[in-house]
Amino acid sequence: MSNEVTINQDGIEQLPMRRFTEEAYLNYSMYVIMDRALPHIGDGLKPVQRRIIYAMSDLGLSANAKYKKSARTVGDVLGKFHPHGDSACYEAMVLMAQPFTYRYPLVDGQGNWGAPDDPKSFAAMRYTEARLSKFSEVLLAELGQGTADWQPNFDGTIEEPKVLPARLPHILLNGITGIAVGMATDIPPHNVRELANACAKLLDNSKTELSELLEDVQGPDYPTDAEIITPRADIQKIYETGRGSIKMRAVYSDEGGEIVITALPHQASGAKILEQIANQMQNKKLPMVSDLRDESDHENPTRLVVTPRSNRVDIEQLMQHLFATTDLEKNYRVNINMIGLDGRPKVKDLKTILSEWLEYRRDTVTRRLQFRLDKILARLHILEGLMIAFLNIDEVIEIIRNEEKPKQELMARFGLSDIQAEAILDLKLRHLAKLEEMKIKGEQDELAAERDKLQLLLSSDRRMKTLIKKEILADAETYGDDRRSPIVERGEAKALSEKELVPSEPVTVVLSEKGWARCAKGHDVDAAGLSYKGDDKYLASAKGRSNQPAVFIDTSGRTFSCDAHGLPSARSQGEPLSGRFGIVAGENFTDVIMGKDEQQFLVSCDAGYGFVGTFKDMLSKAKAGKAYLSLPPAAKVITPQPVNDIATDLCLFISNEGRMLLFPLRDLPSLGKGKGNKLINIPSAKAKTREEFVVHAAVVPIDAEVKIISGKRGMTLKPSDLAHYIGERGRRGNKLPRGLQRVDEILISRTEDVVEDPELGAENSALESSSGQQTEL
């Protein structure tokens, strides 16, 4: 492209606008990438951050110094090193001072430095004061020991360090974000101790695999107690590629029915979250929430209280909705892009970062040791000359007193170097005492020992690695702390559907003999005493929640379902289900049940067949319902019985002939639909003619008692008594005692809950009847 450049008659160089703009943009982009936006792997700082830290160090603002106005620091940074805007420089300084932004703050601020709710609410720099934090020693402790390369500042008047000699891998400790031209960086913060242990492993074995490093580096560690819920496999992928995303979720607890949020995701605003929840409440999208409060204070920096409308609200489900629709759950992009030791920006994996930083650290330690060794050798050289002078003190004094050029004479007489001779001439008379000779010998011995030790370290690769490892682990112990952000496996949050947003209130669904259904509020409903149409009357009822579906079963074994809240109120006489469902002519509804999706039921027919099914398998969106229980000829459906524990519960069946059989529920198959297996042996011919059939079916807990009622007589069978009736599935069962073979009702209660009552028909709050209606134990 050199042929595009021309020189006019006035000697001015000219070039096409296209080339000028292209070169100008490339130069600008390289400047932004290298000197503005991306951190260096050595100290993990952008230039503006490095200049702020160095300027504060230059001002003497150590962790033990008095605070100075931030404006003083910003003025020094702008005047000496960073000729840019003061507001941008001050904001960079503020971020390094905010404990909710930086995992390990580098600046110790006094005054208003912002709050988690509004990080940019900090006071102007003329009001705030600052000094370096204790942790900044990690970056500055070795600065004056020959460890850093220096470069002229922008006007060439003073020098500034190119990279600070970091004692720990700060590039990963505090995290950093930056936007350059054509690239960006988003490095999450990490825990000092975890990274130090990983570095120690790499020093012990440079071939350590990433999976071994991840035994120590569990994942990012943000300055908040909120949970990291990203799966560990995804975290491993981030460290393999240098790219990905991290998901954080707030921490909450249930305190007396109120939801108390005690930790928010990194950089999430509590005020904004409350506003997001309030907006949903105003738009009637959170009917289950009645109140919001912010109880945060100095003792509890984060305490947001969400009050459910009632104690029956499913708190877990509500929080899942809030996680999905508010900033209680946030995603953070990870793009581990940095300037490497080769001076080029690149996205790096974890092992490469730590290996490259350790290379930088080794170079820094080598330079520090060599700097100290050079100082020791120079001092020993001078001490050697001083010792010669003390051994020949009279002659030295004579030369100094009489010679015109004593320096040259001393050098010639005793073979001294220029530096040694100068040191002898600079001696004060008080140092000619005998005691000084002893001090010189002692200092020589001490320095010689240190010299030998340093030379040994510099000549041994193994010793050098051991030293670096010890220093890293020691610094991690000094400046490190425990992990703040726990890594927890959580399921994906899902927003509630319109149906799920229906308040979860106790309801009772009532079914009449003629197939009319309605939904009454509460569980203490006298279903049989409700008003019914004409000669219609009560058939069955089921208790559940308003946001649950109700399943209706017809005489053919088909199931039909609809939302309970979609049924008419119990103040009316309901509506005919034949208008809602496509029931086959001649069939009738026999029962209604409600439950949670995973609730298991004993599903059976009176011909003695059945299986274990879940409530969700009974649901059907189709108007024609679902063919659920296959019935033999003339068989009838028995009300499904809820299962407590399939591993220990027993099935109980009683036939109209007074035979009773119990067997383990686990012997039955779990099916989505079908006929099932034989439960109790009833001859098919007798079942078909209705000569013999099952009259009662129940699920019996392993430690329960069974009360059998026949007319006015009753008998309680304890677990030891029930053993007589336990047999294999499909057997005939044993006969009940005479007078009790025509069973009208069975009541089941756990042994410890039974209350002995001599009067037949006395109510027992722990009893469960075979009709499927039960009270809470």
From TrEMBL:
Belongs to the type II topoisomerase GyrA/ParC subunit family. ParC type 1 subfamily. Residues 766-777 have a biased composition (Polar residues). The active site is at 127 (o-(5'-phospho-dna)-tyrosine intermediate). This is DNA topoisomerase 4 subunit A. CDD domains: TOP4c. PANTHER family: DNA GYRASE/TOPOISOMERASE SUBUNIT A, DNA TOPOISOMERASE 4 SUBUNIT A. PROSITE patterns: TOPO_IIA (PS52040). The keyword RNA-binding does not apply. It is a peripheral membrane protein. The record marks 46, 82, 84 as: Interaction with DNA. Residues 38-501 form the Topo IIA-type catalytic domain.
